[in-house]
Amino acid sequence: MNAKPIFAALALVSSPPSNGWAQDIEAGRAKAQACAACHGADGNAVAGNFPNLAGQTWRYLYVQLKDFKEGRRSNPIMDPIAAQLSRPDMMDIANYFAAQVARPSTYEVDENKVKRGKAKADATLCSMCHLGGFAGQNEIPRVAGQQYAYIVQQLKDFRARKRTNDAGNMTSVAQTLNDEDIDNLAQYITSLR
Prior knowledge:
Strand content: under 5%
Oligomer: single chain
CATH superfamily of the largest domain: Cytochrome c-like domain
Number of helices: 11
Number of domains: 2
Largest sheet: none
Order of helices and strands: HHHHHHHHHHH
Structural class: mainly alpha
CATH architecture of the largest domain: Orthogonal Bundle
Number of strands: 0
């Protein structure tokens, strides 16, 4: 029996996953300097209304930059920044922030709201897409430990259809939420590590 094909197959299966692009973390660090004013040099946001990018899935970050550039998502700060980025720039920046370590939120959560938020997240089946622990996957963002104010605003934007670059998944969920639900969910998600 020739074992070479078996070893070749094992080598392919055991190889680390690749996003299909050369990961140039240092190039990403240099290109991400413009991001630091809002998102922090290491991707941990400087204020609650800006999202943390550290530890986010590279694919989600890349798609969001692409959506800003191509007009599927809009923000007065991000639109002109993304307009200047090439596809390799977006990949480098996404890989850089994905490689950074997310710090726990400093937001003081209300434990009663956290409990209600967890119950709502379970009832709404949030972990079906965002996974257990809200770690995210591929184009589904990691939201665990995300900024409270940012989560609230995004859920309200999805509910009001101001943000629609998600194929309708979050919009359909957010339209079932009232302001109290959004507050509770944001408290819960922010509390996650």
